[in-house]
Amino acid sequence: ARAGAAVQLWARDPGARLPNGAMPRLPDYPLPEAVTVTDSLVMDADMILSVVPMKHFASVLKDVQTSAPVALCCKGVEPDTLRFPLDILHDARPDLNAAVLSGPNFAHEVAAGLPAAAVIAASQPGLARTLADLLGTPRFRLYDSVDITGVQLGGAAKNVIAIAAGATIGAGLGENARAALVTRGLAEISRLAGALGGQAVTMAGLAGVGDLLLTCTGGSSRNYRVGLALGQGETLEQTVAALGGVAEGVATAQALSILARRKGVAVPIIDAVTDLVEGRASLDVVMNCLLMRPAGPEIHF
Ligand SMILES: NC(=O)C1=CN([C@@H]2O[C@H](COP(=O)(O)OP(=O)(O)OC[C@H]3O[C@@H](n4cnc5c(N)ncnc54)[C@H](OP(=O)(O)O)[C@@H]3O)[C@@H](O)[C@H]2O)C=CC1
Ligand SMILES: O=C(CO)COP(=O)(O)O
């Protein structure tokens, strides 16, 4: 809307709109006048931003009627099928042009109009820039990329590393440990990006280190908060129930561990989070396993 477009916001229950004009998930931010709320999935638009969480994306997609290009904003990997968001879209709607939008973007800060940047990736030449020009504003700076694999992986994997970062702080292991863990997490993601057909260098950008910086340090991150609570000894069930929102890293961890194993890529931090959230090992055990690993050459991706 701030970029000058008339916007339709799809919601399961448009009647849930609050008296102040906001929707319940962001109750402090009344929607701009240019935004109308609808429950129709018949979408005649210049572009669609899909923000449905991974768990529900495929089922919502079945009912969408459109020929507009879709920019996917969810961050994760589907646990059973190991599909990234673009794979899910392509499987259901190979006819649609598609892009991925990712980066360090807490929703409440974007809603408040605070400055932010993100990257849009698409494989079709020119599409990412076209969408970036439609959606970008001086306070929402959009860079473009052709590395759809790297951008999707960055968004999905940072949620898993954020759980590890939160657990490190929650367990009282200190900020040095967190910095080391996030840096080595970045190395894992960079290796995996190359093995999956993306570019390791994308992880130096907004979808990689940018979102890691935000999510692994910002107390607003749901994934970080899950890790923090686990580090403080709470159960995953308690933690997720108290969260009031989705933490995609919980379901994504195991999917990334499996993908990495298939590609022969070592991802010990992602594996540690998988063991933790799947209840296979305690925090003490996974931390000790990480600390006992032999250290080798630093750069090997
Ligand atoms: N929040 C953020 O700062 C950011 C989030 N993302 C990504 O965006 C995605 C969505 O996250 P976010 O909006 O924060 O999650 P929330 O947990 O805050 O909201 C979940 C949303 O999903 C909707 N929903 C729940 N169940 C269904 C269903 N069965 N079918 C369709 N919709 C459903 C909810 O609708 P209802 O309100 O009706 O319950 C709600 O709008 C995630 O992949 C996340 O990683 C990416 C960048 C930033
Ligand atoms: O992706 C996000 C910010 O870029 C939101 O992070 P959380 O899902 O951990 O809250």
Automatic annotation (TrEMBL):
<keyword id="KW-0444">Lipid biosynthesis</keyword>
<feature type="domain" description="Glycerol-3-phosphate dehydrogenase NAD-dependent C-terminal">
    <location>
        <begin position="147"/>
        <end position="287"/>
    </location>
</feature>
<dbReference type="Pfam" id="PF07479">
    <property type="entry name" value="NAD_Gly3P_dh_C"/>
</dbReference>
<comment type="pathway">
    <text>Membrane lipid metabolism; glycerophospholipid metabolism.</text>
</comment>
<dbReference type="InterPro" id="IPR013328">
    <property type="entry name" value="6PGD_dom2"/>
</dbReference>
<dbReference type="GO" id="GO:0046168">
    <property type="term" value="P:glycerol-3-phosphate catabolic process"/>
</dbReference>
<feature type="binding site">
    <location>
        <position position="223"/>
    </location>
    <ligand>
        <name>sn-glycerol 3-phosphate</name>
    </ligand>
</feature>
<dbReference type="GO" id="GO:0005829">
    <property type="term" value="C:cytosol"/>
</dbReference>
<keyword id="KW-0520">NAD</keyword>
<feature type="binding site">
    <location>
        <position position="222"/>
    </location>
    <ligand>
        <name>sn-glycerol 3-phosphate</name>
    </ligand>
</feature>
<feature type="binding site">
    <location>
        <position position="248"/>
    </location>
    <ligand>
        <name>NADPH</name>
    </ligand>
</feature>
<dbReference type="GO" id="GO:0006650">
    <property type="term" value="P:glycerophospholipid metabolic process"/>
</dbReference>
<dbReference type="GO" id="GO:0051287">
    <property type="term" value="F:NAD binding"/>
</dbReference>
<feature type="binding site">
    <location>
        <position position="221"/>
    </location>
    <ligand>
        <name>sn-glycerol 3-phosphate</name>
    </ligand>
</feature>
<comment type="function">
    <text>Catalyzes the reduction of the glycolytic intermediate dihydroxyacetone phosphate (DHAP) to sn-glycerol 3-phosphate (G3P), the key precursor for phospholipid synthesis.</text>
</comment>
<feature type="binding site">
    <location>
        <position position="246"/>
    </location>
    <ligand>
        <name>NADPH</name>
    </ligand>
</feature>
<keyword id="KW-0594">Phospholipid biosynthesis</keyword>
<feature type="binding site">
    <location>
        <position position="222"/>
    </location>
    <ligand>
        <name>NAD(+)</name>
    </ligand>
</feature>
<dbReference type="GO" id="GO:0141152">
    <property type="term" value="F:glycerol-3-phosphate dehydrogenase (NAD+) activity"/>
</dbReference>
<feature type="binding site">
    <location>
        <begin position="222"/>
        <end position="223"/>
    </location>
    <ligand>
        <name>substrate</name>
    </ligand>
</feature>
<feature type="binding site">
    <location>
        <position position="211"/>
    </location>
    <ligand>
        <name>sn-glycerol 3-phosphate</name>
    </ligand>
</feature>
<protein>
    <recommendedName>
        <fullName>Glycerol-3-phosphate dehydrogenase [NAD(P)+]</fullName>
        <ecNumber>1.1.1.94</ecNumber>
    </recommendedName>
</protein>
<keyword id="KW-0732">Signal</keyword>
<keyword id="KW-1208">Phospholipid metabolism</keyword>
<feature type="active site" description="Proton acceptor">
    <location>
        <position position="158"/>
    </location>
</feature>
<dbReference type="GO" id="GO:0008654">
    <property type="term" value="P:phospholipid biosynthetic process"/>
</dbReference>
<dbReference type="InterPro" id="IPR011128">
    <property type="entry name" value="G3P_DH_NAD-dep_N"/>
</dbReference>
<feature type="binding site">
    <location>
        <position position="158"/>
    </location>
    <ligand>
        <name>sn-glycerol 3-phosphate</name>
    </ligand>
</feature>
<dbReference type="GO" id="GO:0141153">
    <property type="term" value="F:glycerol-3-phosphate dehydrogenase (NADP+) activity"/>
</dbReference>
<comment type="similarity">
    <text>Belongs to the NAD-dependent glycerol-3-phosphate dehydrogenase family.</text>
</comment>
<dbReference type="GO" id="GO:0005975">
    <property type="term" value="P:carbohydrate metabolic process"/>
</dbReference>
<dbReference type="GO" id="GO:0046167">
    <property type="term" value="P:glycerol-3-phosphate biosynthetic process"/>
</dbReference>
<dbReference type="Pfam" id="PF01210">
    <property type="entry name" value="NAD_Gly3P_dh_N"/>
</dbReference>
<feature type="binding site">
    <location>
        <position position="107"/>
    </location>
    <ligand>
        <name>NAD(+)</name>
    </ligand>
</feature>
<feature type="domain" description="Glycerol-3-phosphate dehydrogenase NAD-dependent N-terminal">
    <location>
        <begin position="1"/>
        <end position="125"/>
    </location>
</feature>
<keyword id="KW-0547">Nucleotide-binding</keyword>
<feature type="binding site">
    <location>
        <position position="75"/>
    </location>
    <ligand>
        <name>NADPH</name>
    </ligand>
</feature>
<feature type="binding site">
    <location>
        <position position="12"/>
    </location>
    <ligand>
        <name>NADPH</name>
    </ligand>
</feature>
<dbReference type="InterPro" id="IPR008927">
    <property type="entry name" value="6-PGluconate_DH-like_C_sf"/>
</dbReference>
<feature type="binding site">
    <location>
        <position position="222"/>
    </location>
    <ligand>
        <name>NADPH</name>
    </ligand>
</feature>
<dbReference type="InterPro" id="IPR006109">
    <property type="entry name" value="G3P_DH_NAD-dep_C"/>
</dbReference>
<feature type="binding site">
    <location>
        <position position="107"/>
    </location>
    <ligand>
        <name>NADPH</name>
    </ligand>
</feature>
